[in-house]
Amino acid sequence: MVSDSTGDASDRKNLLLLIQLRWIAAIGQLATIWFVHAELAIALPLAEMLAVVAFLVGLNLVSLLRYRHRDRVTNTELFLELLLDVGALTVQLYLSGGALNPFISLFLLQVILGAILLEAWSVWTLVAITSACFVGLTAFHRDINMPHSHMGGFWNLHIQGMFICFLLSACLLVAFITRITANLRRRDARLAELRQQSAEEEHVVRMGLLASGAAHELGTPLSTLSVILNDWEKMPALTRDSELAQDLADMQAQLARCKSIVTGILLSSGEARGEGTIRTGVRAFLDETVADWQTLRAPAAFAYDNGFAPDEPVISDLALKQVIVNVLDNALEASPSWVGVVARRQGETLCLEVTDRGSGFPADIAAAPGKPYRSTKARAGAGLGLFLVVNVLRRLGGALDIAAPAGGGAQVRLTLPLAGLSGGRP
Fold first, then answer.
1. CA 212 from chain center: how many Å?
2. CB-based contacts of 321, cutoff 8 Å, min separation 6
3. Is 128 buried (19+), middle (13-18) or exposed (0-12) by CB count in 10 A?
């Protein structure tokens, strides 16, 4: 479905190029008719030829309305557009000498455009139709009285007409095929980007399934440990020892935290999504996330500036909370002495900047953040944190950028549309 929409966008751009080419054709025909009739004094059926030009103008107006009011342009529509152009050219040639007209080779321009824009069956049909028109114009046409010229070489009037046709065709082909090729290259680049994004999202889904499965499997041993600890807390031999009692309390607290983490994993994977949705504000969500992280990690120095205003209601998303925590963890690991966080509102976008005073990111990671298993950490599986961050942000319509502050270190900038945070479509 995604690749189809990409192809549709390319076809719409190509339709616009055909419309522009038709404007050039209409203006060129008017100029040629005027020059031949007024300057060369060759009698032409002006009313009929001008009617064909008016038809091209009307067709272009209809095509423009079609372009603006519909998203999808099919191969059949492009084929019909080219067929109508061939029909108009055939009528003009019929009215001005038929196959003897030097502009007969403009049929080739239509075939070349069709070969680039259309499917195989359409192109061969166009070749058959233009060939039939060529042959038909040799027998059926309206003669025009040409002035006799005894001059040879380039100064022969027919040769000059052929040269003008060649020059016109060459210029139009270079101009429009270059633009059509650029459209196709952009489409191919977009398709490659979408394929890469699909592969990354499939990787994320697999990791989500593994995390969800691990969370389910951890539930049983955690429950067993909870029962054992509860039994130990009731044993007189253990409760009389204050140090052991404190250790048991600490173990219960850590066990409760493990259960909370498992619950969070299941919520983030979607198993409890939609139940008890918590709505909050951006400021409160950021304050709570940062406060929880600061309590657990206890950084040596931490600067937090929540300047998001005016506030905006959003859904408390556990996945987004984990994104922010991952970025903060990376910053703390790179710079244990200091981490800074600044939150700002820019129009309908949340901008969150996390800065550290570490060694910074290598150029390859900073240029394309979020590639899996690309990290400066020398351990297996490193680099998945930033990969997950980028994919969650992409799902919400946001983005991640990495910069190098003047004072050294690294700055990770998260941008998120508020529509995505509030449960709407980003």
1. 30
2. 285, 289
3. exposed
pLDDT tens per residue, range 91-101: 999 998 888 88
Partners of 401 in the beta sheet? 413
> Six-digit token pair at 367?
């240029």
Structure-token match 């408390």, residue found = 316
What residue type is 118 in one-letter code? L
Q: Using CA of residue 14, residue 15, residue 21, residue 25, what is the dihedral sign?
A: positive
Which residues are registered as beta bridge partners of 302? 339
For the segment 255-312, what is each residue's pLDDT rounded down to a tens digit? 888 877 777 666 655 544 333 457 889 999 999 999 989 988 888 899 999 999 999 9
Strand pairing report for 302-306 and 339-346: parallel
- Residue 242 and residue 251: Cα distance in Å, rounded? 14
Which of helix, strand or coil describes residue 1? coil
This prediction has a pTM of 0.47
Pairing of strands 410-417, 399-403: antiparallel
Which residue has tokens 């939609």? Answer: 274
- The dihedral through the CA atoms of 24, 27, 33, 35 has a sign that is negative
b/e 327-361 (16+ beta carbons within 10 angstroms → b): bbbbbbebbeebbbbbbebeeebbbbbbbbbbebb
Bridge pairing between strands 339-346 and 313-315: unpaired
Q: How is residue 233 written in tokens?
A: 């807390």
Beta strands in 144-239 (DSSP E): none
Q: What is the dihedral of CA 244, 245, 247, 249, to 10 degrees?
A: 170
CB atoms inside a 10 Å sphere around CB 63: 19
